[in-house]
Design goal:
201 residues; alpha/beta; two-stranded antiparallel sheet; 6 helices; 9 strands; 26% strand; globular; binds 5-O-phosphono-beta-D-ribofuranosylamine
């Protein structure tokens, strides 16, 4: 069965290396149609423009979370997005927004969830002297970094690692894992059902 390519919007706040990687990995299952940043001048915007992808900046300052999320939602619907991908998007989304995109909204987090939700992950992993960390791609649910996992990969933590060196190694794995997970969702091989990531052939 040949499904039409899913229309994907990517939300960013920064340099956009995952966005670039998802652009490079596009196949018949998905097409990136829009990149949205809440930060003007985010490096990822230039990357999207260089690839001929439409970009929008929606600043968040001076707005309530709900007002910001309504603007975001309107931009995504105007672009007829099927799937919304968070890639270094540093805003917490309201419950209403998340529910509206349930099953079609995914995030990448640089830890082996449910371990190390939230920010400053690599600092905390090193401080706890962990020997293994990793990457998780998950469906987004209202609770932060708590959604069902679609794909995970481990990364060894070296005794000499700094947060920066660990982040670099984890990022390489993010770049492998995110397109794979997005392709599973775009090809309808994984779905969010009854709060679980359910896989089919
Ligand atoms: C990545 O490490 C991602 O896991 C985290 O933010 C970083 C974004 O990097 N959520 P980039 O903007 O994709 O380069």
């Amino acid at each position: 069965m040949n499904l039409p390519a899913k229309r994907v919007a990517v939300l960013i706040s920064g340099r956009g290396s995952n966005l670039q990687n998802l652009i490079d990995a596009q196949d018949l299952s998905y097409r990136i149609v829009l990149a949205i940043s809440n930060v003007e001048g985010a490096g990822g915007l230039d990357k999207a423009q260089a690839a001929g992808i439409a970009t929008t900046v929606i600043p968040h300052s001076g707005k309530t979370r709900e007002a910001f999320d309504d603007e975001l939602d309107a931009a995504l619907r105007a672009a007829h997005a099927d799937i919304v991908v968070l890639a270094g998007f540093m805003r917490i989304l309201s419950d209403g927004f998340v529910r509206g995109w349930e099953g079609r909204l995914i995030n990448i987090h640089p830890s082996l969830l449910p371990a190390y939700r939230g920010t400053r992950v690599h600092e905390r992993v090193i401080a706890a002297k962990e020997s293994v960390s990793g990457v998780s791609v998950h469906f987004v649910v209202p609770e932060l970094d708590a959604g069902p996992v679609i794909a995970q990969a481990s990364v060894l933590v070296h005794p000499s690692d700094t947060p920066a060196s660990l982040a670099d190694r984890v990022l390489e794995v993010e770049h492998k894992l995110y397109p794979e997970a997005l392709k599973l969702l775009a090809a309808e091989k994984v779905k969010l059902e009854k709060g679980l990531a359910v896989f089919s052939g």
